[in-house]
């Protein structure tokens, strides 16, 4: 072959190699597709992502910001505590949800959310492969973690914390093994994170744990490196619409006993369902490897397991962070056990055959190809799965709202006030705003302990519920069937039952005019 033809041949070979790399599927692609099918296309379907009323408020708030080109500092959705400062601390996520909603409604919202969730779990798998856990251990731990996290698979801003936590722990793990300047990408990640979700605290705390681990090792270079990185990332999080006031608000939020007792996500887990059972397995595995980690002086991983394990036991919300933080050391230790069990086995034995198969599949396991994006495109084109047109009627009063929206928000009803549950409040923001304002919704940090106490007294039909209803001048009450207040209103001569279905009741006050004349 002439010398001048060699470079052209080499370029042709590289092009062919790149083509086959993109065309041939990998195990990462298969995992991504499997997760989409099992979690959203099959099973319970895409609507499971809409099981929380806060999603509706995020969409509506994003719409408001796109319309006004500003981030709100006062609450526009309720009449309960007018003039109170409101921190829309997930404003950027709200805008992303609103953009998706404007493009293709709730279908786009659940698709984007599902993609973020499946991408997070796929990246976690690739982290475990990079760590050298081996294919069986990496797959087992990834599927276990995905099962534990499923309780939080909702179209809400915390999905971005899930994604960023996966990236953070991988970047820190890699930097600990081989320091490089790429770890400083955590600084712009902190800026993005603080504007998407309050979970940015995970980054700062984890950097602090890495700094502590370096001090325990008497490694001054690492201690200085991660301490400085923690400080710079902390300063970077001031780049938000509220500045340091946001950090003060979050600090007060996390220290409020009344709030932690009210919000279910901050309660300790109940080990009576499939998701928390998988968390329990991960927790015991994490505790089991603490001694080997300490013996190998992997203090940073031991600290992550202890700290986030404790946090997960005190709050369901932190199960996500623990599962992600503990995944790599658990998978690595399980990989060592797999090697010990299969090493030296004859290739024609069962153990030898399994070891050979895992070894053959390992090399292309983390390769990137076109199969995953192609599958997403086909899912959109052919509409695979049950795409939602509304929030699930099994959770929200979709029928009652559809039939009575004109009654509640019609002409002449501008000052009408509506009482409903905090879960349904977000859905009512989505459906009725700006025609109607709610008494309460899922933003419990905004309403405060006094309003929440009155809310509990109302729903429990305490002795003073008529006085509370008079003071707030409720004209309508949209109540779940299991509320004691619903039974009390049925017996009250001041309220009439206007409509009902399997989810709840719609009551109308009969003597509102008498109240207005007082």
Largest sheet: 4 strands, mixed
Residue share in helices? 55-70%
- Rounded mean pLDDT score: 90
Radius of gyration, CA atoms, in whole angstroms: 27 Å
Overall 3D form: globular
Low-confidence stretches: none
How many helices? The count is: 23
List how many beta strands DSSP finds: 4
Question: How are the strands of the largest sheet arranged?
Answer: 1-2-4-3
**How many domain units?**
2
Strand content: under 5%
Structure classification: mainly alpha
SSE string: HHHHHHHHHHHHHHHHHHEHHHEHEEH
First and last CA, distance? 101 Å
Blueprint of the fold:
Elements lengths: L5 H18 L3 H15 L12 H15 L22 H40 L4 H15 L8 H20 L8 H11 L4 H16 L3 H17 L7 H11 L2 H6 L11 H15 L1 H6 L3 H16 L4 H24 L7 H13 L8 H12 L15 H12 L7 E4 L1 H11 L11 H16 L5 H8 L1 E7 L3 H8 L3 E6 L3 E6 L2 H5 L2
Parallel strand pairs: 1-2
Antiparallel strand pairs: 2-4, 3-4
Task: Outline the structure in words.
- The chain is mostly helical.
- The chain has two domains: 27-382, no CATH class; 398-516.
- The protein is 64% helix and 4% strand.
- The protein has a four-stranded mixed sheet, sandwiched between helices.
- Strand 3 (495-500) and strand 4 form a beta hairpin.
- The longest helix is centred in the N-terminal third of the chain and has 40 residues, at 91-130.
- The chain is globular.
- The mean pLDDT is 90.
């Amino acid at each position: 072959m002439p010398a001048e033809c060699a470079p052209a041949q080499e370029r042709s070979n590289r092009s062919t190699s790149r083509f086959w790399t993109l065309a041939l599927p990998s195990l990462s692609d298969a995992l991504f597709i499997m997760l989409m099918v099992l979690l959203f296309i099959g099973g319970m379907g895409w609507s499971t992502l809409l099981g929380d009323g806060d999603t509706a408020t995020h969409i509506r708030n994003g719409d408001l910001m796109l319309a006004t080109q500003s981030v709100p500092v006062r609450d526009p959705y309720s009449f309960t505590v007018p003039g109170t400062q409101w921190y829309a601390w997930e404003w950027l996520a709200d805008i992303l949800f609103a953009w998706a909603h404007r493009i293709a409604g709730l279908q786009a919202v659940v698709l984007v959310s599902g993609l973020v969730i499946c991408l997070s779990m796929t990246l976690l798998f690739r982290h475990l492969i990079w760590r050298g856990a081996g294919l069986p251990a990496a797959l087992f731990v990834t599927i276990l973690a995905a099962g534990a996290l499923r309780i939080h698979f909702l179209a809400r801003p915390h999905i971005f914390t899930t994604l960023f936590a996966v990236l953070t722990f991988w970047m820190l793990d890699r930097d600990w093994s081989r320091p490089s300047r790429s770890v400083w990408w955590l600084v712009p990640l902190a800026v993005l994170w603080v504007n998407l979700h309050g979970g940015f605290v995970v980054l700062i705390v984890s950097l602090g744990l890495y700094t502590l681990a370096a001090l325990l090792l008497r490694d001054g270079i690492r201690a200085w490196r991660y301490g400085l990185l923690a400080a710079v990332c902390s300063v970077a999080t001031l780049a938000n619409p509220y500045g340091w006031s946001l950090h003060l608000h979050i600090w007060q939020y996390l220290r409020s006993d009344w709030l932690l007792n009210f919000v279910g996500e901050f309660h300790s887990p109940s080990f009576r369902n499939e998701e928390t059972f998988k968390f329990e397995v991960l927790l015991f595995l994490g505790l089991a490897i603490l001694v080997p980690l300490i013996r190998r002086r992997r203090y940073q991983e031991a600290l992550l397991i202890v700290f986030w394990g404790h946090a997960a036991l005190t709050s369901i919300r932190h199960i996500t962070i623990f599962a992600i933080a503990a995944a790599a050391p658990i998978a690595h230790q399980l990989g060592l056990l797999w090697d010990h069990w299969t090493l030296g086995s004859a290739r024609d034995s069962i153990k030898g055959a399994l070891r050979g198969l895992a070894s053959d599949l390992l090399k292309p396991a983390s390769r990137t190809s076109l199969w995953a994006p192609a599958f997403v495109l086909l899912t959109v084109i052919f509409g695979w799965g049950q795409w939602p047109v509304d929030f699930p009627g099994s959770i929200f009063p979709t029928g009652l709202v559809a039939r009575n929206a004109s009654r509640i928000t019609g002409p002449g009803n501008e000052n009408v006030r509506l009482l409903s549950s905090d879960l349904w409040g977000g859905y009512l923001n989505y459906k009725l705003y700006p025609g109607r304002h709610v008494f309460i919704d899922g933003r419990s940090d905004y309403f405060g302990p006094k309003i929440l106490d009155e809310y509990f007294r109302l729903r429990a039909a305490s002795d003073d519920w008529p006085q509370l209803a008079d003071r707030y001048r409720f004209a309508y009450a949209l109540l779940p069937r299991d509320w004691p207040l619903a039974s009390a209103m049925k017996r009250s001569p001041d309220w009439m039952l206007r409509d009902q279905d399997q989810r709840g009741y719609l009551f109308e006050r009969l003597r509102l005019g008498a109240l207005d004349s007082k």
